[in-house]
TrEMBL record:
Official protein name in the record: 3-oxoacyl-ACP reductase FabG
SUPFAM superfamilies reported for this sequence: NAD(P)-binding Rossmann-fold domains
Gene3D superfamilies: NAD(P)-binding Rossmann-like Domain
Domain Ketoreductase: 9-188
UniProt GO BP: monocarboxylic acid metabolic process
Source superkingdom: Bacteria
Length: 252
């Protein structure tokens, strides 16, 4: 995989202010891509943009709530102005609210679905017009082991991430004739801010690690390496599927 290069490619990464989105943005830039970075925290986005510029690539930090139609339209306009085209879209923005269903407010349910599922729809709808006509395109969505198995307290999150699987398959069929692939990456636990409640609770942390046959959490670097491969020319015949990267969690 050392040979993968993305020179002259323009990538858009949501959730790029931290965690997996940031790691993937840096990985794509390291392979030569220019990157538009989307999330709500402008300060963090600017610091990721600086890291990318230090790698000699262009970076465009854009404050954007992916669940807002107007924010996404405005971001797409800025991307069109700055780059003209898009080759790669990575939808990493996501949230998790963990609680029993009877404790969920409707607002919380909507917030999870609006970010994790509707946000992906809005981003794809806005950016596919910029991807068309090049015979190449890559759309990657961060799904989850919760797209395949479940845990109590994850109704909204699992519904949103399982919904993405259907979205991925249908969109892959729509875009296959144009050379644009659409796939999911389903990670097991990685130590990011999203998992702070697990990381800060030694008992929960131990319990999670015990569920992983390889007996350790994944790393941002491992997820980013898979993302880079799926964005490469070499991965051009992989579409409409979802790749689990979970130390064996879902093999059980
Ligand atoms: P994280 O560290 O909490 O990062 C989440 C990112 O999403 C942040 O950049 C956040 O930025 C952004 N975001 C959240 N809501 C947003 C919104 N409405 N509009 C725009 N950006 C928004 O989580 P992570 O671990 O990197 O997770 C990334 C993706 O991987 C998520 O989709 C998650 O479900 C999935 N995933 C993670 C794991 C894991 O173990 N870490 C496992 C399976 C799947 P702002 O707050 O600045 O907006």
């Amino acid at each position: 995989m050392n040979g993968i290069h993305l020179h002259n490619r323009v990538a858009v990464v949501t959730g790029a202010s931290r965690g997996l989105g940031r790691a993937i943005a840096l990985k794509l830039a390291g392979a030569g891509a220019d990157v538009a970075l989307l999330a709500r925290d402008v300060q963090r986005l600017s610091s990721v943009a600086e890291e990318i510029r230090q790698r000699g690539r262009r970076a465009l930090p854009l404050p954007c709530d992916v669940s807002s139609e107007s924010d996404v339209a405005a971001a797409a306009g800025e991307i069109r102005k700055a780059f003209g085209v898009v080759h790669i879209l990575v939808n990493s923005a996501g949230i998790n609210i963990r609680k029993p269903i009877t404790d969920f407010t409707l607002e919380e349910w909507h917030r999870v679905l609006d970010t994790n599922l509707t946000g992906v729809f809005l981003m794809c709808r806005a950016l596919i017009p910029l991807m068309r006509g090049q015979g190449y395109g890559r759309i990657l969505n961060l799904t989850s082991i919760m797209s395949h198995v479940a845990l109590p307290g994850r109704t909204a999150y699992a519904a949103s991430k399982t919904g993405l699987l259907g979205f991925i398959r249908a969109l892959a069929l729509e875009l296959a004739p144009e050379g644009i692939t659409v796939n999911g990456i389903s990670p097991g636990p990685v130590a990011t801010e999203m998992n702070r409640p697990l990381l800060e609770n030694p008992e929960l942390h131990r319990e999670f690690t015990a569920r992983i046959p390889m007996a350790r959490w994944g790393t941002e670097e491992e997820i980013a390496a898979l993302a880079l491969y799926l964005c490469s020319d070499e991965a051009g015949w992989i579409t409409g599927t979802d790749i689990r990267i979970d130390g064996g969690w879902t093999a059980q």
